[in-house]
Write a structure and sequence with these properties.
Structural class: alpha+beta
Number of strands: 15
Radius of gyration: 27 Å
Distance between the termini: 94 Å
Largest sheet: 13 strands, antiparallel
Number of helices: 1
Strand content: over 45%
Shape: globular
């Protein structure tokens, strides 16, 4: 363009189009690199461990909410919840744990757990199992298992800080949903174990129970 030559609207429009095309080509050129970078970050996984030993007793306290069929809420201090590693043994090169769960003095259930290459599994019989805590996890990871007519879906969440009886600890969330509004959340700390629990379920009296529990102490009562 010569000096003092006036720019017509058509010439200004052509320059704008050429500039926009150049920017678009530049962006498309960089896009594959950005996609590789972000995909690479998304594939990174964390190792998750649940340290267990015979005699380990984990004690939790917190808030319990009971909801009647009418929707009335009753808030109370939750009875002490305990997870107790009652027994451990090895079979065929695999380590197994028998774990008892208590609500106050009330025994709720026993679970047989095994340390597998893929993570900690809940054993149901000699062959059937459900992966409870994967060895390698990333946020958003999902898996599921069918137990009888019930389907349990699990999802890995993010990390969160809790003020526990052992000080401030960070845990990774694992979320279990068995359908409807019943769910269980646990947060795993590699050095300690399960540091927080949250659940919602229908009790035997047909009321809904919801609880938020924080680890208060961890001790080993193995007298051998």
């Amino acid at each position: 363009m010569r000096l003092n030559e006036k720019s017509t609207p058509e010439k200004i429009s052509d320059k704008r189009i050429r500039k926009e095309r150049a920017l678009l080509l530049f962006f498309l050129f960089l896009l594959p690199g950005f996609m590789i970078f972000f995909n690479g970050c998304g594939e990174e996984k964390d190792t998750l461990l649940l340290p267990l030993e015979k005699g380990d007793t984990f004690t939790y306290s917190g808030e319990l909410i009971s909801k009647s069929g009418s929707g009335k809420k009753i808030k109370m201090t939750a009875p002490k919840h305990r997870i107790v590693v009652k027994r451990e043994y090895e079979r065929d090169g695999r380590k197994f744990f028998i774990i008892d769960i208590y609500q106050g003095d009330y025994w709720i259930m026993a679970m047989s757990m095994s340390q597998e290459e893929e993570g900690l599994c809940w054993m149901m019989g000699k062959k059937s199992k459900f992966l409870m805590i994967p060895r390698n996890v990333k946020k958003g990871q999902k898996w599921e298992c069918k137990i009888g007519s019930r389907e349990i879906k699990a999802t890995v969440g993010g990390t969160r800080k809790f003020k526990t009886g052992l000080g401030e600890l960070v845990g990774r969330e694992i979320f279990y949903n068995s359908g409807g509004k019943s769910f269980l959340k646990i947060w795993i700390n590699n050095d300690v174990g399960i540091i927080a629990i949250e659940f919602s379920r229908i009790s035997d009296s047909a009321n809904r129970q919801e609880a938020k529990l924080i680890l208060q102490k961890c001790e080993n009562n193995n007298k051998e």
